[in-house]
Known about the structure:
By secondary structure, this protein is mostly beta strands. Helices cover 6% and strands 42% of the residues. A hairpin with a 6-residue loop joins β1 (12-18) and β2 (25-36).
Amino acid sequence: MRATMDVRPGDYIKVEFQDDETGEREFMWLCIESYDEEREIVFGRLDSVPVLNYGGKVKLGSQLAVSYKNIRAHKTSAEFKSQ
């Protein structure tokens, strides 16, 4: 059974990231550009500055593909900007 997401381009999702080297985790916001419901993947740009290093591969503005299973929160653009 596939998960369905009520997301739209311009919305924000909070995503859980894990550093493969240290095992440390952090949560960051991603601005959605598109998504593939069949493959359960969201595509977007990172809207947070990472605290962890990730080998220098992830930074503010990085374009990323994220599995639905790593999404921890969702906000519309209006909700996100009003916080």
